[in-house]
């Protein structure tokens, strides 16, 4: 069991908050520079999120500051810790990787803060780091065990063959994946993701998370990938992953998923490629009979970028409890309201508060960061309790140690 932090450590870590506010980003850049000298550690990270303009250094800077500020009230960080542990499991981060991070972090603090980083300060941050690390290691080991023990489960990287590729829109392709070994696959929780190890010529190994866009079936997984501008992984998948291509895949992970027992109305709210976990949830609810009202609300640019529209409509047509509302921000000239889309424009605060049961429902939200931030803010201000607002976003998480 992890020993509680000492009062002296708590006081010393909190005393570094002003220095972290002033120099935190420099410390994080220095830390990554040190870690990435080791190729084994470098390859654990999504390199597209790093660099001077990368989003991950900023996210980690904010997370370290949040940890220092809440060092005596770590219960406030519990959801963040679970999210980090799930991401680490997807990336196959193991206990032996943690000492490399500790060495790089403490070395970076000393290099950037100089004489202000006294032996006492470094010792306090060392204790604080390992306190959190041991919590993460224990949680990750439990998840690894659950994955291994599950029917069709596995640890490490398992080979899957692309069985089919389906063009869903002008920017999104779906990939149907079946294990090369011919065995079953573990039932994922609708909303979870798979982590892929991609070997792209001319590049170090690339790791990416993609949400599973289908309900569990024990035989295959489906991911639906948007081709991102200049996206190394998404571009390679669109251009080179064909039926027969073999990919290395880690077991399903993620803390964002549909509740096992749905007792309240469900609102599935997505923007762009954020529809992928929502379709998995919607399929699951439709297959289970959807005994509660379900409202799927999706926003995209136009008909050409609208993925899986016919599939979603078919699911709704087969179940009277399911309602679908599609928003097209800028409909094409030949699009017809009521046929190609339901509402022109974006999903507004006014529409959301007037057309969804705020006081009764659970909200599941996924999409680009601005979309997500706006939706969560709108619902919170409208009085929806935080424990009924569930969300996932694509890209690095704003938490400590997210790789």
TrEMBL record:
GO molecular function: FAD binding; heme binding; metal ion binding; nitric oxide dioxygenase NAD(P)H activity; oxygen binding; oxygen carrier activity
A GO BP annotation: response to toxic substance
Principal EC category: oxidoreductase
Enzyme Commission designation: 1.14.12.17
Domain FAD-binding FR-type: 155-259
Keyword Phosphoprotein attributed: no
Every Globin domain range: 4-141
Recorded catalytic activity of this chain's protein: 2 nitric oxide + NADPH + 2 O2 = 2 nitrate + NADP(+) + H(+); 2 nitric oxide + NADH + 2 O2 = 2 nitrate + NAD(+) + H(+)
CC cofactor: FAD; heme b
InterPro entries xref list: Cbr1-like_FAD-bd_dom (IPR008333), FAD-bd_FR_type (IPR017927), FNR_nucleotide-bd (IPR039261), Globin (IPR000971), Globin-like_sf (IPR009050), Globin/Proto (IPR012292), OxRdtase_FAD/NAD-bd (IPR001433), Riboflavin_synthase-like_b-brl (IPR017938)
Keywords carried by this UniProt record: Detoxification, Dioxygenase, FAD, Flavoprotein, Heme, Iron, Metal-binding, NAD, NADP, Oxidoreductase, Oxygen transport, Plasmid, Transport
Cross-referenced PANTHER family: FLAVOHEMOPROTEIN
Family named by the database record: Belongs to the globin family. Two-domain flavohemoproteins subfamily. In the C-terminal section; belongs to the flavoprotein pyridine nucleotide cytochrome reductase family.
Cited function: Is involved in NO detoxification in an aerobic process, termed nitric oxide dioxygenase (NOD) reaction that utilizes O(2) and NAD(P)H to convert NO to nitrate, which protects the bacterium from various noxious nitrogen compounds. Therefore, plays a central role in the inducible response to nitrosative stress.
UniProt-recorded name of the protein: Flavohemoprotein
